[in-house]
Task: structure prediction
Amino acid sequence: MSTAVVHYAAAAVTDRGCKRPSNEDAFGYSVEHGVYVVCDGMGGAAAGEVASALAVDEIMKQLTARRPANPVPPDAESAVAAANEAIFTRAQRSNKLSGMGTTMVALLASERQAWMVNVGDSRGYRLRNGQLEQITVDHSLVEEQVRLGRMDRAEALRSPLRNVITRALGTQSLVTPDIFELEAEPGDLFLLCSDGLTRELSDALIESLLRVGAPLDELCSRLVAAANQAGGHDNITCLLVRADA
Result:
């Protein structure tokens, strides 16, 4: 484990994809504050766009205002709770927005300490020494079936229920995020993405695209282009965060 101080750089690209009439994904980040977030909204009409934008705005507001000395997990839980309440309350005030929600994945980084936070099936990965590892666990019906041994990975990919998520921001009055604590090393590359990427590209293909030496914005664009070439059935968002010495 390196003891070097770690600094971060980031880039993101979001795209409507080839099939959807609008983009219900949203992202935000602040390298200065070590906060990075991707959300994938859901709901009729423009409700998904409203939910994802509300979530990103609230989480960024909460976490960029936090005191750096505070322990991160409680602050992350508070930010998720605030975002959940904002969406849930807004949906109750409007019939057009009723039932809206969003998935969320975030990275919080402070030098060599990092945490991934997720609700739903937007994912967080880490590429280290050329090897891609999924850090987050999908809150989805098929993932639960796989964990219980009732379905294998191949069946999960083909299942007509693969779009059913079991946890989201804004659909219930309370939600619990998963939080994963990590140690960052110089050279680590973190990927936050909506399922519009992971439904089209295998982890092996994502890994091969990320192993190419290129600027972060170019890597994001390559991932999005590959997902669109594979069908682009959903909105696609990629946010890359690199740890540098």
Q: What stands out?
A: The two ends are 13 Å apart (CA to CA).
